């Protein structure tokens, strides 16, 4: 990953940090959903690496699905306009749902997703987020399971992107400002 490392100002969270956080969240989910077989809904595309890591460590029955939801539309800040590009493919009525997010930033996307899922009469809805950026929150919403709390930096890696790039980094780093300014 030397080619991409030149664009990174600093690595904030190593791959090892991410694995430790994923294992901790997996154990919490196991305890909270022991006999419930929750549906883990991965928000594409950013949460895909986190979902894959999280699933490796959950030792209860779960099912998975995917939604493609966006509020960034290629920029560096949430637009506040939520678009559902791909909806989950299974009937989730009466099911316990856990939204798997890469990051909770402004909170707009998560809040809209929670409202959307509650309208479908799910038994419960929670969120597992790899990264939480509480300094940037503009709506009152929190993830139930948080892997890593981050300062207000522009992050890329392990699913987090800038203009669809850098998702493949095995760590989370701060993108150099000259790349996106």
UniProtKB/TrEMBL annotation:
Function as written in the Swiss-Prot or TrEMBL entry: Purine salvage pathway enzyme that catalyzes the transfer of the ribosyl-5-phosphate group from 5-phospho-alpha-D-ribose 1-diphosphate (PRPP) to the N9 position of the 6-oxopurines hypoxanthine and guanine to form the corresponding ribonucleotides IMP (inosine 5'-monophosphate) and GMP (guanosine 5'-monophosphate), with the release of PPi.
Substrates-to-products reaction catalysed: GMP + diphosphate = guanine + 5-phospho-alpha-D-ribose 1-diphosphate; IMP + diphosphate = hypoxanthine + 5-phospho-alpha-D-ribose 1-diphosphate
Enzyme Commission designation: 2.4.2.8
Name the UniProt record assigns to this protein: Hypoxanthine phosphoribosyltransferase
Names of required cofactors: Mg(2+)
Record's keyword annotation contains Metal-binding: yes
Family: Belongs to the purine/pyrimidine phosphoribosyltransferase family.
One of the record's GO cellular component terms: cytosol
NCBIfam families found in the cross-reference section: HGPRTase (TIGR01203)
Compartment list: Cytoplasm
A Pfam family per the record: Pribosyltran
BP terms from Gene Ontology: GMP salvage; guanine salvage; hypoxanthine metabolic process; IMP salvage; purine ribonucleoside salvage
Residue ranges of domain Phosphoribosyltransferase in the record: 14-162
CDD domains, per the entry: PRTases_typeI
């Amino acid at each position: 990953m030397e080619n991409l490392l030149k664009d990174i100002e600093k690595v904030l969270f190593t791959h090892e940090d991410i694995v430790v956080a994923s294992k901790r969240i997996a154990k919490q989910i196991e305890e909270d959903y022991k006999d419930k077989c929750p549906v883990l809904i991965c928000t594409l595309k950013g949460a895909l690496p986190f979902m894959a890591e999280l699933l490796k460590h959950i030792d209860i029955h779960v099912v998975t699905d995917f939604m493609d939801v966006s509020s960034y539309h290629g920029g560096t800040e949430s637009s506040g306009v939520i678009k559902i590009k791909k909806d989950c493919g299974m009937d989730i009525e009466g099911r316990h749902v856990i939204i798997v997010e890469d990051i909770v930033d402004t909170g707009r996307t998560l809040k809209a997703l929670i409202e959307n899922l509650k309208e479908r009469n799910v038994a419960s809805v929670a969120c597992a987020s790899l990264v939480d950026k509480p300094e940037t929150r503009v709506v009152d919403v929190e993830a139930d399971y948080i892997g890593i709390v981050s300062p207000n930096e522009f992050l890329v890696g392990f699913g987090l992107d800038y203009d669809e790039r850098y998702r493949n980094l095995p760590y989370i780093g701060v993108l150099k400002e000259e790349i996106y300014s």
